[in-house]
Specification:
It is a single chain. By secondary structure, the chain is of the alpha+beta class. Helices cover 36% and strands 30% of the residues. It contains five helices and five strands; from the N terminus they run H-H-E-E-E-E-H-H-E-H.
């Protein structure tokens, strides 16, 4: 997939909305060749991400790419920001952040460089299997 195609899909409003969500699922291929969904990426940085909604029809952003591991001293600001979306009182927030800072000297930031993307919005795009069924139905109707 060309970089311009990736950029065009990631710049769509639904994609931007999905990229701003707090939760995504990351999968990778382990040393034994089996897929996993928690990161251990130094051996094989090939990953797949899924970001979706819980409403009907769902919006689904699929991303395949390579993970780059970025060692960070201390706690990355985006980690603190992302966890700030959970419901906490201000006092709980201060305690939580102090606990996190006391546990970790550093973290690893995972940066995914996309090599392929697909936005499934059930308006302009469908899952590949559904697209194939629609195509077969049209062929049957036209036969």
């Amino acid at each position: 997939m060309r970089a311009s195609e990736i950029t065009e899909i990631l710049d769509r409003p639904f994609s931007r909305e999905l990229l701003a969500r707090d939760v995504l699922r990351l999968a990778y291929v382990a040393k034994d060749g089996t897929p996993r969904s928690s990161p251990a990426l130094r051996e094989n940085p090939t990953v797949a991400l899924t970001i979706d909604t819980e409403v009907h029809p769902p919006k689904i952003l699929l991303i395949r790419g390579r993970a780059e591991l970025d060692a960070v001293d201390g706690i990355p600001e985006e980690y603190l920001r992302m966890n700030g979306s959970y419901e906490m009182t201000p006092e709980q927030r201060v305690e939580w952040e102090a606990e996190v800072r006391s546990l970790y000297d550093g973290m690893v930031r995972i940066v995914v460089k996309p090599t392929w993307v697909k936005l499934i919005d059930f308006e302009r795009t469908l899952p590949s299997a559904v697209e194939e069924l629609v195509k077969r139905r049209a062929e049957r109707e036209n036969a």
